[in-house]
C-alpha cells in the first residue's frame, strides 16, 4: 500500500472532530458519494516527471462522474485538470486511514463488501465525522502540493510574505505549498453540494448540512495548521 505524509493531518482530524461529533450522534449525515467516482481518476493525476494532467476532455470526464451535485459538475468543467488531483487526494486519504486504523474494528473499509468507507458515512458516528474531515484535508493537501509543483494551470507557489514572528536566523524563500488556494478550492468544490440543498432553517436537514460543513472545515483547518 502506497502511503504519503498525511499521518499528522489525519491524526489531528480525528482529535478535532471529537467535539463536533458529540452533537450529531443521533443525526444521520448526508451523502458524500462524490468521492466514490473521483477517486478512480487518481491514475490521471499530474506528476513532476510527466507534466500537466492527462485527464480526458472536460465534457467526457465530468459526464462520467456520478454523484456530483450540479455545482460540483460546473466546477469540474471549469477546473477539469484539478479533478484527477482531487481523486488522488481522496485515494491517499483513504489509504492513510486504512493504515492508521489497521488494528481497529473500523479502518475506512466496509466489512460487508470490502469497499472503502461504505455506508458508515451516512451514520451519525465519530467515524462519519472523521470521514468528512479526512477527505477535505486530503484534497486540500494534494491541491496545495500540486500547485507548488507547477502542475495546475490556475495556481503556483505560495506567495505569502515572510511571517513577522519568524526567527531572523531562518531564511524565507523558495516555493511552498499553496495552502490558501488548496483550501479555497476544496471549500468551493466539496461544500457546494451542501449549500445547494437550501434546507429550511431550524430543521434536522439544515442541522445535518451545517455539521457536514463544520467537519469539512475541520479538515481544512488541520491541513493549514500542520503545513504552516
UniProtKB/TrEMBL annotation:
Protein name, as recorded: Protein Wnt
Biological role stated in the UniProt entry: Ligand for members of the frizzled family of seven transmembrane receptors.
Single GO MF descriptor: cytokine activity
Keyword set includes Metal-binding: no
Keyword Ribonucleoprotein: no
Family: Belongs to the Wnt family.
Gene Ontology CC, one term: extracellular space
InterPro entries the UniProt entry points to: Wnt (IPR005817)
Pfam families: wnt (PF00110)
Subcellular location: Secreted, Extracellular space, Extracellular matrix
Record-level GO BP terms: canonical Wnt signaling pathway; cell fate commitment; neuron differentiation
TM region positions: 12-35
Key words of the record: Developmental protein, Disulfide bond, Extracellular matrix, Glycoprotein, Lipoprotein, Membrane, Secreted, Transmembrane, Transmembrane helix, Wnt signaling pathway
Amino acid at each position: 500500500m502506497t502511503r504519503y505524509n498525511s499521518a499528522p493531518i489525519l491524526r489531528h482530524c480525528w482529535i478535532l472532530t471529537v467535539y463536533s461529533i458529540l452533537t450529531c450522534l443521533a443525526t444521520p449525515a448526508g451523502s458524500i458519494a462524490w468521492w466514490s467516482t473521483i477517486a478512480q481518476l487518481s491514475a490521471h493525476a499530474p506528476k513532476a516527471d510527466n507534466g500537466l494532467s492527462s485527464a480526458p476532455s472536460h465534457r467526457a470526464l465530468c459526464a462520467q462522474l456520478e454523484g456530483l451535485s450540479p455545482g460540483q459538475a460546473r466546477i469540474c468543467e471549469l477546473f477539469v485538470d484539478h479533478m484527477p488531483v482531487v481523486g488522488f487526494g481522496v485515494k491517499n486519504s483513504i489509504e492513510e486511514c486504512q493504515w492508521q486504523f489497521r488494528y481497529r474494528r473500523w479502518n475506512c473499509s466496509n466489512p460487508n463488501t470490502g469497499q472503502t468507507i461504505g455506508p458508515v458515512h451516512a451514520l451519525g458516528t465519530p467515524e462519519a465525522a472523521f470521514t468528512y474531515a479526512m477527505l477535505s484535508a486530503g484534497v486540500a493537501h494534494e491541491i496545495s502540493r500540486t500547485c507548488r509543483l507547477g502542475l495546475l494551470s490556475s495556481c503556483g507557489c505560495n506567495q505569502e510574505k515572510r511571517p513577522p514572528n519568524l526567527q531572523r536566523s531562518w531564511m524565507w524563500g523558495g516555493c511552498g505549498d499553496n495552502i490558501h488556494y488548496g483550501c479555497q478550492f476544496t471549500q468551493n468544490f466539496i461544500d457546494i453540494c451542501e449549500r445547494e440543498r437550501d434546507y429550511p432553517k431550524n430543521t434536522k436537514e439544515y442541522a445535518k448540512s451545517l455539521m457536514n460543513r463544520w467537519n469539512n472545515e475541520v479538515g481544512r483547518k488541520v491541513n493549514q495548521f500542520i503545513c504552516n
